[in-house]
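New to this. Look over this protein:
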Amino acid sequence: MTISPKTVADAPVITLENVNKWYGDFHVLRDVSMQVAQGAKIVICGPSGSGKSTAIRCINGLEEHQEGRISVDGIELTDDLRSVNAIRRRVGMVFQNFNLFPHLTVLDNLTLGPTLAQGVRKDEAEAAAMELLRRVRIPDQALKYPGQLSGGQQQRVAIARSLILRPRVMLFDEPTSALDPEMVHEVLDVMTELAQEGMTMLCVTHEMGFARKVADLVVFMDAGCIVEAAPPEEFFTAPKNERTRSFLSQVLH
């Protein structure tokens, strides 16, 4: 199945064509095809082991696909390290676990990438970092270390750290799954604001309320395949596939 949310008429910023991936004998992605327009918000859901996280991790080369084609912003992902690096400069990634450097302050976690990878002056990087910390509502945490923050605060730092590199696309791999329930809304609020500002986003999540509110398209994966893809209203009220209906009956309360 090919999905292409109709948000703008421009060429897609992300393209997957018949992408296949195996872990040994396990066929984790089966002919996955997708086109994502600039500014589109895609939520990918599905049961554990369905391939949803692997699909987005393939987009920036964290996982290597064996067949098919992936391109981001017109750059095709190959095994050439130059293409991988070019794509990673355009793609921000937020993981389940925050992956912050524990020995660095919040401010230093944010400025490390721009100063080392992009040659930005320290004072300019710090000014940009503080602006992003205000954007994710934790400027008062700038001089603390990750271990001094709540899980929700750490995840917001991780989002700010990705944004400081000015990505064209943000990928979220179950960003709230490691959080206590009362902290989930802190992160989802920031992600909602990003969506409203026009950021192109692919988000793997079970937060169906977020999908209803933010997504242009909800994609359901099972057994390595895209089973169904539809706008939220259609996806939640009239799913066409029995596997989709079964999944929704388990996650909607």
User: Anything to note?
Assistant: The longest helix spans residues 181-196. The mean pLDDT is 93.
